[in-house]
Amino acid sequence: MPHPASQETTSKRRTAMLRSAFRGAVAAALDADDVIEVLANPDGSIWIERAGVGLAREAETLDAEARERIIRLVAGSVGETCDRANPVISAELPGSGERFEGVLPPVSEAPCFAIRKPAVAPFTLDDYVTSGALAPAIADALRSSLATRANIVIAGGTSSGKTTFTNALLAEPAFAEERVVILEDTRELKCAAKNAVALRTHGERASLSRLVRSTMRLRPDRIIVGEVRGAEALDLLKAWNTGHPGGVTTLHANSAEGALSRLEQLAAEATSAPPQRLIADAVDVVLFMSRHDGVRRIEDALRVIGVDGDAYEFAPLCEPKLVPQIKGETHENC
């Protein structure tokens, strides 16, 4: 068995080699506080997304050899191999924890990777309101929902800001005195709770579905799942509906209404009958997030009323109110 000191030396050497492999625009982006995502495409182009700016192409490129070296070094840092037989690697960058996804041929035409950076200073609900991404009345309604232990689903497309908004919710005082268990594939969520347990998936032996079931024995007050992607959706719904309310999760969907249909599809991986009644009972609030020109905002916020036949029933999280503006104009404040 390798000596711990030897393992630590090897780990530090790999981290140093990886950091030296990130050069030019990629290295600068990893050090910049305003960068959200770094993309290196098969054609060598580098694309960087910055907060409030959006995605833009850099002037310089990164050759195939450099891209492949980075991918292999990341794989080695987590004890895995990335080659033609195993051409995809999902990992965290050692030391700093950025989420990394690397792909080699034959899956891609040439080596490519994406790096998602965690927020340096997490947004708060007030920050979203100030930036115009969240209506003040919806922010108030969300705080009330958290206080009354509503289960919240945050839906949206890729890079729509679901994780960042989840962190804004987790920073609210409603979580501070609770025992919160957080389940995710990579470390991206942070919680204000003093009594918090963060668990990560690790292969099939510690899949998200397995972790959700294990969580029930960890005495959680609230269960948070970074993103549901499969059969674990059914386990989470059951947990939320049997004495563990007040949870939050995210999923990919094209609308707030479509989020519950997406939950049906995911739960169907574990059951033959769509659990519509369970979904309607377990989910209290659905939010839909979108991204336009680099700006992320909450497009829709709905309460789940129930299910009628095959259709879910919704109501606005807060009722629109017309308030007078300059020159007699009106606008909705929610």
Question: How would you portray this structure in words?
Answer:
- With 334 residues, this protein is α/β, with parallel strands linked by helices.
- The protein has two domains: 113 residues, Beta-Lactamase (2-Layer Sandwich), CATH 3.30.450.90; 192 residues, Rossmann fold, CATH 3.40.50.300.
- It is built from ten helices and 16 strands.
- The strands form three sheets. Strands 9-8-10-11-7-12-13-14 form an eight-stranded mixed sheet, with helices on both faces. The chain has a six-stranded antiparallel sheet with strand order 3-2-1-6-5-4, with helices on one face. A two-stranded antiparallel ribbon has the order 15-16.
- Helix 1 packs antiparallel against helix 3.
- The longest helix has 18 residues.
- The N and C termini lie far apart (61 Å).
- The C terminus is likely disordered.
What is the CATH topology of the largest domain?
Answer: Rossmann fold
Total number of distinct structural domains: 2
> Uncertain runs with pLDDT below 50, 5 residues or more?
322-332
Oligomer: single chain
Find the count of extended strands (DSSP E, 2+ residues): 16
Main sheet attributes: strand count, strand direction, barrel closure = 8 strands, mixed
Across the major sheet, the strand order is: 9-8-10-11-7-12-13-14
Helix count, DSSP H or I runs of 4 or more residues:
10
Nearest-integer average pLDDT: 88
Q: Topology as H/E string? A: HHEEEHEEEHHEHEEHEHEHHEEEEE
